[in-house]
Write a structure and sequence with these properties.
The protein is of the alpha/beta class. The protein has 2 domains: about 140 residues, HAD superfamily/HAD-like (Rossmann fold); about 70 residues, Putative phosphatase, domain 2 (DNA polymerase, domain 1), CATH 1.10.150. It is built from 9 helices and 6 strands. A 6-stranded parallel β-sheet has the order 3-2-1-4-5-6. The longest helix has 19 residues. Belongs to the HAD-like hydrolase superfamily. CbbY/CbbZ/Gph/YieH family.
């Protein structure tokens, strides 16, 4: 029986993935890294410092540290989130449905806490989550399951009694590795990829979250 719901953030709660893509496409060329929009799509859900390190290993630059480049990208994403406040359809509905089912609710994101806090403020969600966790300081971000395991621990619930809500395959792998039930809502262009079959349920919107769906897990 499901006792808790753990929400991803980027791409699930807030339509910030285009902002991450835009920020990378703006910043990486400044340090001589050539990348395409598809490159940014392929790393969806991966922690930004891991992405920066990957490109640095492939094409080392000088003048700026990896941390500097991370901060430049993050600053740009925060600017765009605050400007546009791009809440995903059905977010309030999904949260209210979980609350009505007496589920504990947590947020578990690969994003740095400064961005998580900016999103919660922009979407007026302060105080909604019983636990808010970032993979920022962990040895590994998603697809490693630690941030999800930490979320279950913070809620004092077994991972086996949690459902994770995700949009990316990277995040889905993390939740499955944590042995949680999974609901995935892929971005439209990724929706028909067969790899999402490993999720317990694949939806097109958070608006499709129902008490019956949660009770079936």
């Amino acid at each position: 029986m499901i006792k808790a719901a753990v929400f991803d953030m980027d791409g699930l709660m807030v339509d910030s993935e285009p902002f991450w893509q835009q920020a990378q496409l703006e910043v990486f060329p400044k340090v001589g890294v050539k990348l395409t929009l598809q490159d940014t799509i392929d790393t969806t859900g991966v922690r930004i410092d891991q992405i920066v390190e990957l490109y640095y290993r492939q094409s080392p630059w000088s003048g700026l540290s990896c941390e500097d480049v991370c901060n430049m990208i993050l600053t740009r994403v925060i600017e765009l989130v605050k400007e546009h406040k791009p809440m995903m359809p059905g977010l309030f509905h999904a949260l209210e449905t979980c609350q009505q089912q007496d589920l504990k609710i947590a947020l578990a994101s690969s994003s740095p806490m400064v961005l998580i806090e900016a999103v919660l403020e922009a979407l007026e969600l302060d105080g909604v989550f019983e636990a808010v966790l970032s993979a920022e300081g962990l040895p590994y971000g998603k697809p490693h399951p630690e941030v999800y395991l930490n979320a279950a621990d913070a809620l004092e619930v077994s991972p086996l009694d949690c459902v994770a809500l995700e949009d990316s395959f990277t995040g889905l792998l993390a939740a499955k590795a944590a042995q949680m039930k999974t609901i995935v809502i892929p971005e439209h262009s990724q929706r028909e990829q067969p790899r999402f079959v490993i999720a317990d349920h694949k939806l097109t919107s958070l608006e499709q979250i129902t008490p019956e769906l949660l009770q079936s897990l």
